[in-house]
């Protein structure tokens, strides 16, 4: 497949997990890929690393100086946060919203002048099943992903006139370094992994490649009529009710 031949993409958080798998898939299908990340991570040979902290507008502006043409933005970088509204501090709320939500606005805002010149402009945001399903002990994180879902719709509406499509993917629990870190902090990582797998109706975690494939689907010029949608990649977690 070479549907992205001649197109240029930015993937935020391309150093690891879903972002890395997406950068590799876009590259394999013909795109030139820039990975905006704090760290190069695993992207050497796959994407051009541009050091960027999406929580800081000056850093985003500096990163965009490296880009002269652009068709696709994958807003994927985010951080997790555990806790309830009782345990989360105001500082944590502001920190996580600044990265997970304002980070998307910041990167997309900087991309708009270039995207307006593209004939295949598309933005895909990595949202989460946490936007639409209550998950215990994830108050801040879930609220940020709810905001990403709403922001996707608002951006799709505002930039229809610019011919920029905006969509999002909603993964379930995906087998990435993020989840491996979570498991590493659990008192019984094997039991915790089993519990996460059991929560997925398919009985297994989602793979980073499955999410990447859905991101590429939404970013593809072949989906020219698809905007303002969210695509579940969650093993059925959002919609299915399986009797035990
Ligand atoms: N893994 C899951 O179970 C899961 C489920 C649903 C949604 N998601 C979403 O998928 C996306 C990617 O998650 P992942 O599991 O691949 O995570 P990951 O931790 O493996 O990768 C995240 C990447 O983002 C980068 N990053 C973090 N903060 C940044 C910043 N301020 N500026 C630039 N880069 C930054 C990190 O350096 C890292 O390379 C996130 O939006 C996450 O919310 C993940």
UniProtKB/TrEMBL annotation:
<dbReference type="InterPro" id="IPR036291">
    <property type="entry name" value="NAD(P)-bd_dom_sf"/>
</dbReference>
<keyword id="KW-0560">Oxidoreductase</keyword>
<dbReference type="InterPro" id="IPR002347">
    <property type="entry name" value="SDR_fam"/>
</dbReference>
<protein>
    <submittedName>
        <fullName>Unannotated protein</fullName>
    </submittedName>
</protein>
<dbReference type="InterPro" id="IPR051122">
    <property type="entry name" value="SDR_DHRS6-like"/>
</dbReference>
<dbReference type="InterPro" id="IPR020904">
    <property type="entry name" value="Sc_DH/Rdtase_CS"/>
</dbReference>
<dbReference type="Pfam" id="PF13561">
    <property type="entry name" value="adh_short_C2"/>
</dbReference>
<comment type="similarity">
    <text>Belongs to the short-chain dehydrogenases/reductases (SDR) family.</text>
</comment>
<dbReference type="GO" id="GO:0016491">
    <property type="term" value="F:oxidoreductase activity"/>
</dbReference>
């Amino acid at each position: 497949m070479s549907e992205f031949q001649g197109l240029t993409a930015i993937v935020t958080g391309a150093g690891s997990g879903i972002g890395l798998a997406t950068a590799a898939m876009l590259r394999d299908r013909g795109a030139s890929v820039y990975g905006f990340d704090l760290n190069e991570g695993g992207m050497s040979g796959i994407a051009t690393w541009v050091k960027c902290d999406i929580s800081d507008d000056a850093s985003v502006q500096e990163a965009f100086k490296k880009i002269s043409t652009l068709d696709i933005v994958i807003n994927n970088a985010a951080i997790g946060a555990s806790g309830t509204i009782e345990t989360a501090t105001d500082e944590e709320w502001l920190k996580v919203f600044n990265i997970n939500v304002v980070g998307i606005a910041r990167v997309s805002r900087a991309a708009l002048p270039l995207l307006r010149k593209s004939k295949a402009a598309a933005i895909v945001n990595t949202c989460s099943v946490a936007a639409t399903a209550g998950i215990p002990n994830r108050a801040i994180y879930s609220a940020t992903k709810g905001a990403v879902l709403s922001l996707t719709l608002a951006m799709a509406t505002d930039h229809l006139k610019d011919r920029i499509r905006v969509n999002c993917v909603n993964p379930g629990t995906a087998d990435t370094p993020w989840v491996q870190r979570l498991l590493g902090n659990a008192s019984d990582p094997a039991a915790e992994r089993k519990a996460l797998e059991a929560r997925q109706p398919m009985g297994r975690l989602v793979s980073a490649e499955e999410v990447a494939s859905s991101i590429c689907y939404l970013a593809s010029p072949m989906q020219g009529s698809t905007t303002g949608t969210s695509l579940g990649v969650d093993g059925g977690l959002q919609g299915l009710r399986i009797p035990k």
